[in-house]
């Protein structure tokens, strides 16, 4: 199992790629050093066997950042997060209409299942209930 430092933008021990997207991966736009808060989402993506890349992002509209991340992702799925909220977007959806929105105060299972579902979108298989 990876340590929390493996998912930190500060530590360059990333288990997954950073910055440029060359290989197929879900692009995750990260603001405010938020990757540790959303570790359960990252673990959910990893459980499904889908790679992801963390890209630093300055503040702004998370929905738009998630949509832009989906446009950059070879897998057509993008995520954006700050310390309080996480957005999952799909390239073929309108920019203003994200697939999932999650607040940090929601339980760990909801966060993990959101990661699973982002990866399942890539795989083309049914979503899990985010709260089950």
From TrEMBL:
Highest taxon above the source species: Bacteria
Pfam family, one: Dehydratase_MU
InterPro entries the UniProt entry points to: B12-dep_deHydtase_bsu, Dehydtase/Dehydtase_re, Diol/glycerol_deHydtase_re_ssu
Gene3D superfamilies: B12-dependent dehydatase associated subunit
Name of the protein this chain belongs to: Propanediol dehydratase
């Amino acid at each position: 199992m990876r340590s929390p430092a493996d998912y930190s933008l500060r530590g360059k021990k990333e288990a997954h790629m950073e910055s440029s997207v060359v290989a197929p991966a879900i692009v995750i736009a990260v603001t405010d050093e938020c990757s540790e808060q959303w570790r359960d989402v990252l673990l959910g993506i990893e459980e499904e066997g889908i790679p992801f890349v963390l890209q630093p992002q300055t503040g702004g509209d998370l929905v738009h950042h998630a949509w832009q991340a989906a446009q950059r992702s070879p897998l057509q799925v993008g995520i954006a997060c700050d310390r309080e909220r996480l957005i999952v977007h799909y390239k073929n959806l309108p920019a203003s209409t994200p697939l999932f929105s999650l607040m940090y105060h929601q339980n760990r299972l909801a966060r993990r299942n959101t990661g699973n579902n982002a990866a399942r979108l890539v795989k083309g298989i049914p979503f899990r209930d985010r709260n089950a």
